[in-house]
Amino acid sequence: MNEQNKKVITGIIVAVVFCVCVALVIIGHKNIGLAGLGTQLLGLAGLLCLLGLYNNKYK
After folding, report:
1. Radius of gyration, alpha carbons of the chain
2. pLDDT tens digits, residue range 21-43?
3. Reduced to 3 states, what is the DSSP secondary structure of residue 12?
4. Total domain count for the chain?
């Protein structure tokens, strides 16, 4: 597998993880209670991890 294919696959994986994390935040917002809060925090943690990975490249 060449470098271009790796970049494309990595981009697709990051986009899917981003969509899942945003969906977790939205679903958690609809649920009231600790389960909803936990879902939102899980989505937020995923988004922060993606942001950290992105910023790590430009350190």
Report:
1. 14
2. 999 999 999 988 999 999 999 99
3. helix
4. 1
Cα–Cα dist 51/55, whole Å:
6
Here the tokens at position 6 are 């790796």
The pTM of the full predicted model, rounded to 2 decimals, is 0.86
The residue segments making up the domain with residue 41 are 3-56
Q: Let me know if 13 is exposed, middle or buried by CB neighbors in 10 A (0-12, 13-18, 19+).
A: exposed
Phi, psi of 13 (to 5 degrees): -65, -45
Largest CA distance in the chain: 47
Structure tokens at 53: 């990975």
- Percentage helix, strand, coil for the chain under 3-state DSSP, each rounded to 5: 85, 0, 15
Is the Cβ–Cβ distance between 55 and 35 less than 8 Å?
Answer: no
